[in-house]
Amino acid sequence: MFIKTTLMDAGLTIQLGHADGSRCSNPELPRQGFCIIDTNGHHTVSIRFCGCDRAAESGSSVQQLLRRDLYPATHIEPHTAFTFRMMEHYHIQSLQGKISMYDYYESLERMTDNTGTHRVPARYKEFMRVATQWRHLKMLKRAGWGHDPTGVDGTRDGELAICCPACPRPDVNLPKNWQSAPKEFKYVLIRSATWQQYSLIC
Questions:
Q1: What is the rounded CA–CA span in Å between residue 129 and residue 134?
Q2: Which end of the chain is more exposed for a tag (fewer CB within 10 A), N or C?
Q3: What CA–CA distance (Å, rounded) separates 43 from 38?
């Protein structure tokens, strides 16, 4: 018969920190039971972080995870990480399919074990925190804030908002003499109850 097992139980240990795949001469003790969540469910792995003389270029444990496209659930001794692929997949599903965070996470648990006979690590709170951070980082990235001299900390309220193309704005979508236009011409915002959008009419 076939028995379900993991690569960790088979003796696999993932070594982080060395981009060229070389063996670390002084790795940290492996973190057994490290949980990685991907689009196909939960995975329990054994991970070692770099602790040799190349640790300076490898960075902290959080940086080593991020360089392998793994988003840690916390920046202090992480034991859970979400793959970038899963975070991008959820982001698109939430925007296009309007799927809730809870339903998406529950589907990942179902893909891990749909029989209900095995205990799946509960990581819903961590997923909520990471998803919020992911969306914020996406906004910063799309706004080009990484190139600003003040950095992310210099972001003020409202600076990540996207300008509505339908909102009347002088020198953008209003004529130069819009203030002196006849009274029968009114530039107002009309909200559509069907599409929840604004349009400019005159």
A1: 9
A2: N
A3: 8
Phi, psi of 61 (to 5 degrees): -60, -35
Is 82 buried (19+), middle (13-18) or exposed (0-12) by CB count in 10 A? buried
The pTM score is: 0.76
pLDDT tens digits, residue range 97-142? 999 999 999 999 999 988 888 888 899 999 999 999 999 999 888 8
Helix ranges, the chain (H): 55-58, 61-67, 84-92, 101-112, 124-142
Distance (Å, whole) CA 160 – CA 174: 24
**Residue 192 and residue 136: Cα distance in Å, rounded?**
28
Helix (H, G, I), strand (E, B), or coil: what is residue 43?
A: strand
Residue 185 in tokens: 């011409």
**Residue tagged 């309220």 (tokens):** 157
d(CA 79, CA 102): 21
3-state SS, residue 46: strand
How far apart CA 141 and CA 35 sit, in angstroms, is 27
Tokens of 74: 């916390």
Cα gap 104→128, rounded to integer Å:
11
